[in-house]
Design brief:
Length: about 425
């Protein structure tokens, strides 16, 4: 097999997210070259890239080869030859030989027979999936919360949540079959990588000498469903990814979005709120990691309590209605949400104990469950267990919360507040 070094680097680069760094199945740390294709998988995502030159089956140790190719001229012609448990790569100025495993040990690409498929503008679809990724659950005990939910139909709805917060976005697309699927978080990251690295397909035009059609062209991805366990994402002629879906029924995300008229709505500058929270974060950590926000007509008092300390900061608000009102938010979740945001953030809530809804420009709507901010002594409040609202169900609606399917994981409780640290005793000097 002969291929240009630059082209082979490009192929391996596309396959990168599907090659696991650590695995109990060492063969997965290789790339399979076979039948005009290059393939890689972590058993959740199968990525294939057309390589017409791949006429001899062999396994390429990904990490070793990609490191070696970094120091090889891109214009060189690379000759790949396999045999006797080894694979050799040679070019005009050198040669490298690596141990290679039997290709029969590499997992077969799952058979995929689509029952429904549709083209999508991947410049909208993939970023929407990535934007809710920070809100998936990080624990493995609730698989249905560890991926991104896609409600396919008309429109397309994207959601993710960990039981204490969730993100939700609607896309003006349609799919010919009404299905709800859960895409693993690692697969979403792999799809983002392919979206970023695959070239755009410019429209047919007589302006062949202009770069404008290329730069302005949309990236189109065809999404197919096989009716059983997978989705297939085809990025033009450049790459294809088959995603194994997470089994189970995701939460009814729409039912978690407040429908009542908000009792409080306000707008703040994201950068000002972020700065105020960071200023108070150290004190909040000394208590229950709660940030209190008290809204008035044209300002909001951001405060925190911890141990015997209290601090507050005032920021300007816009179009506030329903004041005065006070809500408590987990400081970590609030900073995660504000990270990197510029401009105005809208904040609404439908009542005491109800979720707090954040909206920023065209980003997903984010819902965070409030924390208990009853007027108690700081030490007493820090030791108190979270109430029903902190466990993912609004206190006022606990009796009316919709029943969940039997195979659905209950909302994840809020993290338990850390106890306030003990003060060291001062050493008394003897006279």
């Amino acid at each position: 097999m002969d291929i240009q070094v630059a082209r082979f680097r490009e192929v391996l680069g596309l396959l990168k997210p599907a090659v696991p760094r650590k695995t109990t199945l060492p063969v997965l740390m290789n790339v399979l070259l076979k039948d005009g294709m290059a393939m890689a998988t972590d058993l959740e995502t199968f990525v294939t890239v057309p390589v017409p030159e791949a006429d001899t089956p062999c396994l390429i140790p990904y990490a070793d080869v990609i490191k070696m190719l970094q120091y090889t001229q891109g214009g060189e012609s690379l000759h790949i030859e396999a045999g006797d448990g080894k694979v050799s790569l040679s070019w005009s100025e050198g040669k490298s030989t690596f141990p290679s495993k039997d290709v029969s040990g590499f997992p077969e690409i799952p058979e995929f027979v689509p029952v429904a498929e549709a083209p999508f503008d991947s410049d909208a679809l993939i970023p929407a999936m990535v934007s809710v990724l920070p809100y998936v659950a990080r624990k493995d005990d609730r698989p249905v919360l560890s991926g991104v939910t896609m409600v396919m139909g008309e429109p397309i709805e994207i959601a993710a949540g960990d039981g204490f917060r969730m993100a939700y976005q609607v896309l003006p697309f349609s799919f010919p079959q009404n299905i709800t699927v859960i895409v693993p978080a690692s697969s979403v990251s792999a799809l983002c990588h392919l979206w970023e690295k695959t070239p755009r397909t410019p429209p047919l035009s007589s302006e062949v000498d202009s770069l404008i059609p290329v730069l302005m062209a949309k990236k189109e991805t065809t999404v197919a469903y096989d009716g059983k366990t997978g989705l297939r994402f085809s990025f033009g002629q450049s790459a294809t990814a088959i995603v194994k879906l997470i089994e189970g029924s995701p939460p009814a995300w729409l039912k978690l979005i407040p429908k009542e008229e908000p009792v409080l709505q306000s707008q703040v500058m994201a950068s000002q709120l972020d700065l105020a929270v960071r200023r108070l974060r150290g004190i909040a950590k000394e208590g229950a990691d709660i940030i209190r926000m008290e809204f008035n007509e044209d300002s909001a008092i951001i405060s925190a309590r911890g141990g015997d300390q209290e601090a507050e900061s005032t920021i300007k608000t816009f179009d506030t209605k329903g004041f005065p009102a006070e809500v408590g938010i987990n400081a970590t979740y609030l900073l995660d949400y504000l990270n990197g945001k510029e401009g105005i953030v809208s904040i609404t809530t439908t009542g005491k104990g109800s979720p707090v809804v954040f909206q920023h420009q065209r980003n997903p709507k984010v819902i965070i469950m409030p924390m208990n901010i009853a007027e108690k002594a700081p030490d007493e409040a820090a030791e108190e267990a979270p109430d029903e609202a902190a466990e993912g169900v609004p206190a006022e609606e606990a009796d009316q919360a919709p029943a969940e399917p039997a195979d659905q994981a209950p909302p994840e409780p809020a993290p338990e507040p850390a106890p306030a640290p003990k003060r060291p005793r001062a050493n008394k000097k003897k006279r």
